[in-house]
## 1
Amino acid sequence: MKRLLAAMLLLAAAIAHAGQNCEPKPMTVDEVRRSLDLAERSMQALDASGAQVAIIARAGQNLSQYGLRYSHVGLAWRDHPAGRWVVVQLLNDCGTADSALYNDGLGNFFMSGLYRYQALVMLPSPEVQQRLAQVLASRTPLRLHEANYSMLAYAFSTRYQNSNQWALETLAAASAPPGKVETRAEAQQWLAEAGFHPVGVDVGLGARVGARLFRANVAFDDHPTGPRLRGHFDTVTVDGIEQFVRSHDRGAQILEL
């Protein structure tokens, strides 16, 4: 176990985490241990559920000032025939304006400098899980990916995309009737018709100016003018996804670890 922790520490120190601002901050032994413990508990919960696909969230940042508990979601997919869990996720490339899709193990998913060692696991109904598995095995996730990244991407615009938005739009492709969602615009239209309402965030003027001047991965120009000037941004958050899953997918189960 000590050798494993030492190896993971070296890995954590060497990797510039996607989705972070790439400040060199090695994880401590305790942080590595707690992250791996959360990954193991998540794997046990997923195995016990009998699920094919789950939506899994981590608390990588303190977003309590915005009334949010979790910061990032990925789609956990049981990789057959190997049977291991793979998390498909969109990650921002080190604070740039670019993003890419990644396949990671549960350990890597939680080895990101967590703010809180808790996970949210959303288990869609079996029918949606089956469709999600089919979607993830196709080229649809790539078609629904927009490389232009913004942390505050507007929920109903295709100009930018954030990590949670990609996961939600992929869920839309699996939840809609076959063939109805092939593009991001179609995914957003289906979500609006299905009753998705973004959990908006309010950002003060000082924070907006600082973010726009000094952070390449934040943009505001895709948002409607009125709310934008008031500092209100309807973006896709984990809380918004959870609310939509609870209201739209009656067969879904929600677990908190």
## 2
Amino acid sequence: MERNFMTTTKPFVIIGAGIAGVHAAESLRNEGYEGRIVLIDRDTQLPYDRPPLSKEYMLGESSESNIYLRSHESFNTLRIELKLGVEIVSIDAEKQIAITSDGTIIEWEKLLFTTGSRLRQLQVKGSDLEEVHYLKTLSDANNIRSKLDNVQQVVIVGAGFIGAELASSLKKLGKEVTILERMPLPLAHILGEEMGEYFLHLHQSKGVNVITGDSVVQFDGTSQVEKVLTENGRVISCQAVIVGIGVIPNTLLSDEKLDVDRGYVVNEFGETSLPNVYAAGDCAMWPYRGANIHIEHWDHAVNHGKCVAKNMINEKSAPYSAIPYFWSDQYDHRLQYFGHTKDWKSTVLRGNIEDQQFTYFYLNESDIVEAALLVNQPKNALAVRRLVKQQHPVHTDLLSNPDMSLKKVHLRANEDKVSY
């Protein structure tokens, strides 16, 4: 293969022009970096925001131009060299080069992976039928939208956040929606059984048919999907299927000395095991309170990208210490989640579930708030973030009392810590 060197001046190269990559590139300039910045993506579209794809964009409430992260003019003004439709197929960390699919060699002074995540694929008979969709890109969203006029019955495989948001959007569009989830309750592995029951009833109350504890064994049809066959013997009629069974970090670009454990393993400064190579956002495994974790959400991608950019300019100058946060809009519900935990010891409910306005706290064995879910209570967001961040034991009776402000709960926990 013929190879051509792109330039003789070594730039900072960012592979992946999603949320993390765009904010990292922009932050390099904002932090005073004057060298060349090359931002590369295999997608041909101007970098865009992904969360609206399952919501406002799917509903036709937002146009393509509304979801672009930045304009061409903005990239030019910041002197960010945006290379779209360019696929990097390998890197050589020792030579500090990246090689594109057409053999072009791109030299770099420092390299940042912001390669995001890739979809888990459902491998069953009939997966290649027409109208079996996945939603990851703007092209995916456009393809789904273009077919909806001819669709009345939709099956969504997977009751995660993408599946739940799509169910909400498609129901608003007047479609007959069935969610098929292999777990007993939706989102219970993240939010617990009580909240799993809540979200199950939420979708059912909106007229969505939610089937749990069952999975796809086959898609059936001639050229286009017409039925979903399940392990428990169900036959579900449909004219379209959208599969949303999760994602995995995109670590297809690698090096024998690069530490990869699900994602690119980085330290608190975003440094990988290779010198001058960094990773940020969905593709990274990063340290949080004694363990490496992986977060696939917008807020983390923004903040991690910005933070790692600082460390690319001034090494080890800005440890990443953000509290994980994500949100989801489903029907008329705004859901917000702060923190991260998989093995909480107890939960505390503040408010009334029946009122559909409450905060649900996840505590460890020391009564420290590790995470919290807010349902239709955005005014509590700042106080909840502080409670998660402080890592002091709280009085659970005060925490559950809606007449006691969360600010006072936070102050009381601080006072008790100081007294102790």
## 3
Amino acid sequence: MKSRGMFIFGLLGCLMAGTTTAVHKAPAAVKPPQTIVYPSVASQVSFKSVTELQVTQPSQKIMYGDNPLQFGWLWPGDHASNKPLIVLVHGGCWLNAFGVDHSFPMATALSQAGHPVWSLEYRRTGDEGGGWPGSFDDIKSALKNLDALNQHGINTESIILLGHSAGGHLALLAASELTEIKFKQVIGLAAITDISRYALGENSCQTATPKFMNGLPHEQSADYHQANLIYRQLPASVTLLHGDADRIVPIIQTKLPAVNVEIIPAAGHFDWVHPGSPAFQKLLTVLDL
């Protein structure tokens, strides 16, 4: 099973070869006011299928810091629906080979469901200042600068913090630390929670973890302790959504105390970012709670 997982994720890495942090432009947009209808797909979608989906163009690029990678794309959603702002943290093994652009289908669908969406880019492994703790510092900086959205007509009083995979790890860490922000919900999608355990695995994402942390757990024990959610007190609003067919982030990563956990049968790792998947429909249901 491990060799099969390594092959699948390695193949995805090959498909993404050549992707760099230089890509900051939004994909070609569908002309408004056309609404994109994402057809239903079977579970266990590929990363490539997500990158091939149509998207709508964000309305604004809003900086939260001075570094060119410290920004977020904003979709305004439907003001009349009064749905909470979603702050979205993308995944990708903390690597700069995987940028914010692959979150665009998800952000499109969430905005079409009525939510304003601010999808964050941040410095990652391979970027100057990225890795631990720089990537985490960026997410915290963005959340401390939510007032920047007010001038664009976004209500920041009600916030859902949503992160996928490595982005789920960073989002949950931020929720544990920024206690002054009262999140309506904090949702980890296939989130990495026990980073020390994860760093000892053998798939391509697991072997990228020591690069993010500048060493293995026994080499950087203090940093791993800080970055490990099992040692953090999380707010009661945290929900973990995970597929039992995820070959990239093992289901054991849902073993956190005092959080809500929902396991989705047959769902794979990238189902959460594909708006046509059953897992994504489950996410929409959770967001409406």
